[in-house]
TrEMBL record:
<keyword id="KW-0862">Zinc</keyword>
<comment type="function">
    <text>Catalyzes the ATP-dependent conversion of 7-carboxy-7-deazaguanine (CDG) to 7-cyano-7-deazaguanine (preQ(0)).</text>
</comment>
<feature type="binding site">
    <location>
        <position position="186"/>
    </location>
    <ligand>
        <name>Zn(2+)</name>
    </ligand>
</feature>
<keyword id="KW-0671">Queuosine biosynthesis</keyword>
<keyword id="KW-0067">ATP-binding</keyword>
<feature type="binding site">
    <location>
        <position position="189"/>
    </location>
    <ligand>
        <name>Zn(2+)</name>
    </ligand>
</feature>
<comment type="pathway">
    <text>Purine metabolism; 7-cyano-7-deazaguanine biosynthesis.</text>
</comment>
<dbReference type="Pfam" id="PF06508">
    <property type="entry name" value="QueC"/>
</dbReference>
<keyword id="KW-0547">Nucleotide-binding</keyword>
<keyword id="KW-0436">Ligase</keyword>
<keyword id="KW-0479">Metal-binding</keyword>
<comment type="similarity">
    <text>Belongs to the QueC family.</text>
</comment>
<dbReference type="InterPro" id="IPR014729">
    <property type="entry name" value="Rossmann-like_a/b/a_fold"/>
</dbReference>
<feature type="binding site">
    <location>
        <position position="173"/>
    </location>
    <ligand>
        <name>Zn(2+)</name>
    </ligand>
</feature>
<protein>
    <recommendedName>
        <fullName>7-cyano-7-deazaguanine synthase</fullName>
        <ecNumber>6.3.4.20</ecNumber>
    </recommendedName>
</protein>
<dbReference type="InterPro" id="IPR018317">
    <property type="entry name" value="QueC"/>
</dbReference>
<feature type="binding site">
    <location>
        <position position="183"/>
    </location>
    <ligand>
        <name>Zn(2+)</name>
    </ligand>
</feature>
Length: 209
């Protein structure tokens, strides 16, 4: 949400891509629809891609979402190569639409340690995009913008407030409760709650814990 808002602020037309990968937290698809409508993006595509066929993650397999806080290892909520897959699809749409700019909201400060959120990944994908596309082969440049990469969660919350966005419309929880509330205990919920608390801002998310 904040990433799209920043892109609009910089004067970009926004084509919003959401991947329905049959994730456990499918409520985020509804949040994406709400946000895309609120921002008035030019087009919003929800693309089906069933990563449950591969599994290997608590978000796409019968594996419990951990609720005991962050550790030193990459957690089981990591979806194998997810951001690589997502950016590849975004690149394909961007090239078809005549765009040379991709925006992704990855963060490498207050995060769960996923390898596909690091600056090295973003830089590597940008290099790959140059050799993998018609745009690149004709001398053009594809730029991958990651405006949230070096921001703390509190700073991202502050940016949402500055842009006039309703943070409660966004979704972070990996393991929603049956009644629609966020669990409040998974890594994503913990990081989100701590960020809003540090920023001194109200988070409109309904938590179960």
């Amino acid at each position: 949400m904040v990433c799209a808002g920043l892109a609009q602020e910089q004067g970009y037309r926004v084509l919003a891509l959401t991947i329905d990968y049959n994730q456990r937290h499918r409520v985020e698809l509804d949040a994406a629809r709400t946000i895309a409508a609120r921002l008035g993006v030019e087009r919003h595509v929800i693309l089906p891609l069933d990563l449950r066929q591969f599994g290997g993650s608590a978000l796409t397999d019968a594996i419990d979402v951990p609720k005991d806080g962050l550790g030193d290892d990459i957690p089981v909520t990591y979806v194998p190569a997810r951001n690589l897959v997502f950016l590849s699809l975004a690149l394909a749409w961007a090239e078809a639409a005549g765009s040379k700019d991709l925006f992704i909201g990855v963060n490498a400060l207050d995060y769960s340690g996923y390898p596909d959120c690091r600056p090295e990944f973003i830089g590597g994908f940008q290099d790959l995009a140059r050799v993998a596309t018609k745009i690149g082969s004709e001398g053009g440049t594809v730029t991958v913008h990651a405006p949230l990469q070096h921001l703390k969660k509190s700073e991202i919350a502050q940016e949402a407030a500055r842009l006039g966005l309703e943070a409660g419309e966004s979704w972070s929880c990996y393991d929603p409760l049956p009644d629609g509330r966020a669990c409040g205990e998974c890594d994503s919920c913990r990081l989100r709650k701590a960020g809003f608390a540090e920023a001194g801002l109200i988070d409109g998310t309904r938590y179960g814990a």
